[in-house]
Design goal:
97 residues, mainly alpha
C-alpha cells in the first residue's frame, strides 16, 4: 500500500511543483514580475485589478499542499522501505548495496 501511495505522489508532486512555479512567475511583484518583463503594461494586469490578491492566496494554498504532500511522500517511502516493498531500495533482492 505504501508503495502505491509513494508512486501516486511521485506523479502528483512534479505537476504541482510546475504549477506553483508558473503561478509565482505570473505574479506581479515590485519589479512588475514576468508579465512586465514580457512587455505587459506595468500598472495593469491581464487577469484583472484584484488578481494579485487571488494569486497570492492561491500560491499560499498550493505551497501548503505541496509541503504536506512532500511530507506524506517521505513517510510513504520510509514505510515502504521498512516493509520491504517491491519499490524499496533495501529489498531482500540485494538492492541498495
Amino acid at each position: 500500500m505504501w508503495g502505491v501511495l509513494a508512486f501516486v505522489l511521485n506523479m502528483i508532486l512534479p505537476l504541482l511543483s510546475l504549477f506553483m512555479i508558473l503561478l509565482i512567475l505570473i505574479q506581479r511583484g515590485k519589479g512588475g514580475g514576468l508579465i512586465g518583463a514580457l512587455g505587459g503594461a506595468g500598472g495593469s494586469s491581464p487577469f484583472g485589478s484584484r488578481a494579485g490578491d487571488q494569486f497570492t492566496r492561491l500560491t499560499i494554498y498550493i505551497a501548503v499542499a505541496w509541503l504536506l504532500l512532500t511530507m506524506f511522500q517521505v513517510k510513504a517511502i520510509q514505510n515502504d522501505a521498512r516493509s520491504g516493498g517491491a519499490g524499496s531500495a533495501f529489498s531482500s533482492r540485494g538492492g541498495g548495496e
